[in-house]
User: Fold (wild Malaysian banana) hypothetical protein from Musa acuminata subsp. malaccensis.
Amino acid sequence: MENLISLVNNIQRACTALGDHGEESALPTLWDSLPAIAVVGGQSSGKSSVLESIVGKDFLPRGSGIVTRRPLVLQLHKIDEGREYAEFMHLPKKKFTDFAQVRKEIEDETDRETGRSKQISSVPIHLSIFSPNVVNLTLVDLPGLTKVAVEGQPESIVTDIENMVRAYIEKPNCIILAISPANQDLATSDAIKISREVDPKGERTFGVLTKIDLMDKGTNAVDILEGKSYKLQFPWIGVVNRSQADINKNVDMIAARNREREYFANTPEYKHLVNRMGSEHLAKMMSKHLEQVIKSRIPGIQSLISKTITELEMELSRLGKPIAADTGGKLYAIMEICRVFDQNYKEHLDGMRPGGEKIYNVFDSQLPAALKRLQFDKHLSMENVRKTVTEADGYQPHLIAPEQGYRRLIESSVVSIRGPAESAVDSVHAILKDLVHKAINETHELKQYPTLRVEVGNAAVESLERMREESKKATLKLVDMECSYLTVDFFRKLPQDVEKGGNPTHSLFDRYNDSYLRRVGTTVLAYVNMVCASLRNSIPKSIVYCQVREAKRSLLDHFFTDLGKREGKQLGKLLDEDPAIMERRTALAKRLELYRSAQAEIDSVAWANK
Assistant:
């Protein structure tokens, strides 16, 4: 069972070390789920004396006004023998055997956090005390509730302290140790008042009555201690602390405990309650109760830790890895991000992501439709054929076939295919460019770094522009090739066709008649349609080879070459992550470390108890 209190002690220390103080934040808090005993009381209620009596040492700052200005997490560890000593979490390698120095260090550490302005802070101080005279117990000493601000403190200090105390004790896992002086009316007790607000049924409140020995003659606290004046679920405990005179004389704590025991045993009003009175009984009872609460909460804490670890890991994964400090690390990080982008881009082209199918649509629908819209038959109308053939013959009419006329008609028809070919190149370019933007949006890592995102996008588009120019040159060359060299075999069939249509020995002037010119137009149209069919297959091949294939192979090659020439500072500018994201990642990593260490602590205790 003692392992359970040590377990919570270790987790609480980890919480403080890694910035989890139970305050409201955008991060999950483990501190709030840990059972803890918060010591609450007004100024001059005897709160410090109760704690010192439990420990058996003078170690808390004393004075007028607000002395406790930060929560003090007091972890007591029972040892079998040896000299008593104390350790602070912020001074892990230093052991304090002089408890006057412990008091001074509490004051100094408070000033380090709050300055000497008498302000308060919710960041706790962790103090561990190892002694044969204590029980295993953890208490959180909170600033004393007050009704007025002292000199040097803001007027808001009264509300600030009350809000801090309430923030601690309103949590369902907090056990409240409410300290009230017996020589004042219980109805005016600050501790009872605030405890009642957060725990109206008294289900997690322990009442401690101090200064019983200072009550007016003829009065006693029996009704309170028996739960008649103010009933709590747990019995009230009365304590008799050292007087100010005893403190001034440095009366030994062990002697003070003996005197307290004798007081309750020898005072007639309290004899029947002696077995549940005194600081020793208070410490043992709180230790036992804390163990029971921790044991009941462990399964829920384990479940919470596992769930939160998963959530933190998922969010860290979404935020991406932190930026490397060295030049090589930065370059590697940029290359890896670009590799992810490049892979996403290829997946679009290869059909694993949508978008690549639009390129096929250009070849299968857009290009054929554009070729069809050229309407070669109108270009080869009777009037245009006569005009072209006549002009090509010049002053000397053709002898057998109007070869120059054929060439001019074919060239003027085929050259118009340049338009659809160029349009197909541009359409594929637009699709490739659109896929760049899609792949960038799908590359989560690029969202971290806006400058890198812009540069990668610009570099990819610039590469596609170069590829478009190369593709345009290659594709238009295919059209120009068809213009520059005609397929001879096609025209070798013409004499046979002429024979079928008439006698080639007819008058030369007869060859300009409608029937003859119509045959020339039909022949040219057949040839141009043959060229169109051929180009309809070869233009896509040229475009895929020059644009799609190159985009898959070398989209960011120029960018990578440029990266290799940049200095570390220039690379750093590319990784200009949003500071808010950097802070969030750091905070999440710390919190994840806390939850993992807590999980390891709980697992080790679970194995030890098997």
Notes: Residues 54 and 280 are 6 Å apart (CA to CA). Residues 327-495+510-576 form a domain with the Four Helix Bundle (Hemerythrin (Met), subunit A) fold (CATH 1.20.120.1240). The two ends are 13 Å apart (CA to CA).
